[in-house]
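Cross-check.
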Amino acid sequence: MNYTEFVEDYFHFFQEGEEQGFNYFFHFHYKPLVHFAYSFLNNTESAEDITEEAFLKLWQKRETIESVSSIKPWLYATVRNNCIDVLRKQKNGAAYNNYIKKLPPRFAPDVTQSIIISESMHQVFLAVQNLPPKYQQLFNLLYVQGKEVKEIALELNLPLSTVKSQKARTLQLLRKQLPHLGILILLLTK
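Predicted model, tokenized:
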């Protein structure tokens, strides 16, 4: 059985209301969608809630989904629309207004770019989980918490040169795991 047949089997299970079909698509798309929603809301809990709501709607509409290839665009469009609704409803509309100001002149967000960034970051975070614990910790301190190298050296009681070399090694290991994301990894070197 090839990959396409494998996915089509899960799509069939999904349309028939079998949990294993839903679980396959949930597992495959959940984390990238949360990253995508977070790019709008800057709130992990809200991003997770909106993503879960999108999957609930998908499950309710499973019989009307025509093909496996339509699931991903449907989910991204649903999450995007729900994020915009949340921003619109927030107190005084300040967050929504800030979002609107960032839109390109044609008044439509570049959803494709957001999807690519979300999925790329998801791949990076999966790759980070494969790093040795000390490199995972360093990645978290540098890129998730946004700390400076000097600050990390003090916090971990390590020489500055050690933190710098561990940072370089972390990025080198990530480049090996994700050669197709070379540009994104280069952005992390700054």
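The CA atoms of residues 10 and 25 lie 8 Å apart. The mean pLDDT is 76. Passed to J.P. for a second look.
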